[in-house]
Design goal:
The structure holds two protein chains of two kinds.
Chain A lengths: L6 H17 L2 H8 L7 H10 L18 H13 L6 H15 L1 H12 L5 E4 L15 E5 L2 E12 L6 E7 L10 E7 L5 E7 L5 E12 L4 E2 L2 H37 L1 E2 L2 E2 L4 H25 L6 H30 L9 H14 L4 H14 L3
Parallel strand pairs in A: 1-4
Antiparallel strand pairs in A: 2-3, 3-7, 4-5, 5-8, 6-7, 9-10
Chain B lengths: L6 H17 L4 H6 L5 H14 L17 H13 L7 H14 L2 H13 L4 E4 L15 E5 L2 E8 L10 E7 L10 E7 L5 E7 L5 E14 L3 E2 L5 H15 L3 H17 L1 E2 L2 E2 L4 H29 L8 H23 L27 H8 L9 H12 L3
Parallel strand pairs in B: 1-4
Antiparallel strand pairs in B: 2-3, 3-7, 4-5, 5-8, 6-7, 9-10
Classes of the chains: A alpha+beta, B alpha+beta.
């Protein structure tokens, strides 16, 4: 058992946090998200080429640093601290993770261009009726010669307006909600028949509703592995947003401490009031526990499926509740100024709130944990 | 960064498991009936571990510790909880022992440490007073110098297991004029000294666990003072930080949750076992997840210690969350047993051989729930722990 970071991991964290401190100040971020395209693509290329950051979790044979889940977690935590809207989660953790899992020619073809920053991926899995059930898929992929034809509607696809590729879940067989027959496809985002409706999200990102209308895709777009593969990469992604949450929550807590120390009421800083001190201690404990749970789940991602899922659900349930608690109490402690757009605190709160339900609410994960650990053990 | 056990760790775990299986005293009859442990019961396991050299894994090797790695200590606490081993009394091993090896004279170390390890001396803690609970530094028990002795007068309370104690470590006031925390000294007092009176306090569950201790003109040699005169608060703070880490109680809470699951499989709720009730199941899940969070927070903190950071004020977090979880476990166990939480079980007297009312797992559910309210109060109440974090960690 060893909980220490390697020198390379420390270096990744230091380099990234310095870069993000320079490029992702509050005003710079506001400017980006209010721009026409909603981002500054220069930052992504700098992450790829100047910092080599996108190579962190990939194998050396693909030009990577040879890291994995721990690197993803610490990068996501740093992204969370500045509320970065970069498509690292979608492109590297999810897309890259799927390619690493399937390996072979598909991985050889695409991973180098992810590392280089040329390929960005969006994950089109959610459907309006599906909630968090990954097998609740109505989008179809019908075999047609050597390829498939896609039809269906995917909802709230984060980062889709910027993506060169889409990672899509679609049904090649089986009935609605059946696990059998759900497959994963990596396709060009600009194929004929793909209709996108783009919009901003409440937490500063961009997303799309995507409609597939008889979209012809090649046979080698299929990443073989079915629902098991999809569950695996979604678990990776879930832990990555937990890691992002630890960064967001730490900032919410830190900002609240700073504010309470300088805000004067009744002739003294409000940080002197014990009722607020204890609330800030409770926030601190949630932040620490979120870090612990993220570490716990990160170290379980390569375990057998049921162990992995139980660990990931424990982490997400705890982090979702913690993010809720820390976010709400950060706003409450700030008072009126907390509900304006003026301070960063409100923006962290919005991201924390979206993370609560991303890849499953606390309730969803409590239930999944109960199913694996309590029901199946009886 | 990984959580795998090495081949050596696995060999160690097997060795520990086999040792416990071969040597732990059989307590099954007592446990089944929910009877309390006697002094001899506690000491039986203590002596076996001492003979093996495993009684104080947390101590430095030079004073009789095991020299185990942090991982081995983790395995040890997991395995002892898994086997539901008799717990060791903390007053000597976890409390005064570390104070003596950190602050004591060579004579004090040579005399007291081996006797703590062997179990020869049973220790108690003389801290709280009727007027000094959370505000411990306001304590009024006095020690006045008289030649080579102190004359000690005052009253201590909530003194756990003092009825069995050979020795006690006491905080006493040696300078009335100094600022509160600067006039306190740390004394080791022989409980058989003339003038020491121990009176029982019976708590909600009917147990005799805590006591009042009266000190009337008790003579204590100056050589029994640990560290400098008026610097006892330094020892007290050191001890509190140590006490707070052990207090998380992760391994025994794991066992507690397993016990609740077993009860909930036996108890019926309609035509299904209680464990299938969605609301009850959610409470178990919440407990189990909160316990994982506590466990990994403790492991992170241990890793920090191994990297040279001592147990700091963040260990208050472990005390707060650990004690809350212990209480929730006893509350859920009481909920699980339903009607049979109510019958009052007096324990067995002489010639008393009628089987108690209700299922065996129900006998101590209510008394344990009542008794466990103590965990958020003792060792610095959870409100005091929040004050400590606010001040020492958050700089408020």
């Amino acid at each position: 058992m060893d909980f220490t970071y390697t020198e390379t991991q420390d270096m990744i964290r230091d380099t990234l946090s310095r870069f993000l401190a320079d490029s992702y100040g509050f005003d710079a971020r506001q400017k980006m998200i209010n721009s026409e395209t909603g981002r500054d693509p220069g930052i992504w290329s700098a992450l790829a080429t100047e910092l080599g950051m996108l190579s962190a979790p990939f194998a050396e044979e693909h030009g990577g640093l040879g890291g994995g889940h721990v690197e993803n977690a610490l990068i996501m935590e740093e992204m969370g601290k500045v509320m970065a809207i970069e498509p690292y989660l979608q492109t590297v953790v999810i897309g890259g993770g799927a390619l690493k899992a399937v390996g072979g020619a598909q991985a050889d073809a695409i991973i180098p261009s992810i590392i280089g920053g040329e390929t960005t991926i969006a994950f089109a899995y959610a459907e309006p009726q599906g909630r968090y059930d990954l097998a609740n898929v109505r989008t179809t992929a019908k075999a047609d010669g050597a390829g498939y034809v896609l039809n269906g509607h995917k909802g709230v696809v984060y980062c889709a307006p910027w993506a060169t590729h889409l990672l899509v879940t679609a049904r090649t067989g089986g009935g609605h909600r059946e696990r059998n027959g759900v497959e994963l496809f990596l396709i060009d985002a600009n194929l004929p028949g793909i209709v996108r409706r783009d919009y901003p999200t409440v937490d500063g990102n961009r997303a799309s509703e995507i409609y597939f209308e008889n979209v012809a895709i090649p046979g080698d777009a299929l990443l073989l592995g079915g629902i098991d593969l999809i569950e695996h990469i979604v678990d990776n992604a879930t832990v990555a947003v937990c890691a992002e949450a630890t960064g967001v929550m730490a900032k919410l807590h830190e900002g609240t401490l700073d504010y309470a120390k300088q805000r004067q009421q009744f002739g003294q800083p409000i940080a002197r009031f014990q009722v607020l001190q204890h609330r800030m201690v409770d926030m601190f404990m949630e932040v620490e526990q979120a870090k612990s749970m993220t570490l716990y789940a990160t170290l379980h991602l390569d375990k057998p499926a049921s162990e992995r899922m139980a660990a990931v659900s424990q982490a997400k349930a705890k982090v979702s509740r913690g993010a809720n608690f820390v976010g709400q109490n950060a706003i409450q402690t700030h008072g009126g100024i907390g509900i304006t757009q003026e301070l960063a605190i409100g923006h962290y709160f919005k991201r924390a709130t979206m993370i609560e339900n991303q890849f499953g609410s606390a309730d969803y994960h409590y239930e999944r944990f109960e199913r694996i650990v309590i029901d199946e053990a009886n | 960064m990984d959580m795998e056990f090495s081949a050596e760790d696995i060999a160690f775990r097997d060795e520990v498991r086999a040792f416990i299986a071969d040597n732990h005293p059989d307590m099954s009859a007592k446990k089944e009936l929910g009877e309390e442990m006697s002094k001899e019961d506690f000491l039986s396991w203590h002596r076996i571990l001492h003979a093996k050299g495993w009684v104080a894994p947390a101590w430095p090797k030079e004073y009789g510790g095991t020299g185990w790695t942090a991982t081995q200590r983790y395995i040890w606490s997991e395995e002892t909880a898994r086997a539901d081993c008799i717990r060791l009394m903390p007053f000597g091993l976890s409390m005064v022992g570390p104070v003596i090896y950190a602050f004591g004279t060579p004579e004090q170390k040579a005399h007291f440490l081996p006797r703590i390890l062997s179990g020869e001396d049973w220790w108690c803690q003389g801290y709280s007073e009727p007027g000094s609970g959370s505000d411990l530094a306001s304590l009024r028990t006095t020690a006045v110098r008289d030649g080579d002795d102190y004359i000690v007068n005052g009253q201590k309370t909530w003194t756990t297991m003092a009825q069995h104690a050979d020795w006690g470590f006491f905080l006493v006031r040696t300078d009335k004029d100094a600022k509160q925390q600067e006039g306190i000294s740390f004394l080791l007092i022989d409980m058989k000294s003339p003038g020491v009176t121990v009176r029982p306090i019976i708590t909600l569950g009917g147990e005799h666990e805590v006591n009042e201790v009266w000190l009337e003109n008790v003579r204590v040699p100056v050589s029994n003072r640990v560290y400098e005169e008026n610097k006892g608060w330094t020892c007290a703070k050191f001890l509190l930080a140590h006490e707070r880490t052990g207090i998380a109680g992760v391994a025994s809470s794991k066992r507690g949750i397993e016990r609740i699951k077993d009860i909930a499989k036996s108890e019926q709720d309609g035509d299904k076992p209680l464990i299938s009730n969605a609301f009850f199941k959610r409470k178990i899940a919440e407990l189990q997840i909160d316990l994982t969070a506590l466990e990994f927070t403790e492991l992170r903190s241990l890793a920090g210690e191994a990297a040279g950071k001592g147990p700091g004020p963040e260990s208050s977090l472990l005390k707060i969350k650990g004690s809350e979880i212990q209480q929730r476990i006893t509350e859920l166990a009481l909920e699980a047993v339903g009607h049979y939480g109510a019958p009052y079980f007096r324990g067995f007297g002489e010639g008393d051989n009628e089987h108690p009312i209700g299922p065996d797992y129900a006998h101590r559910a209510a008394p344990t729930y009542f008794n466990t309210r103590k965990t958020t109060i003792y060792g610095g109440s959870n409100e005091i722990q929040r004050n400590i974090i606010a001040k020492m960690v958050l700089g408020l």
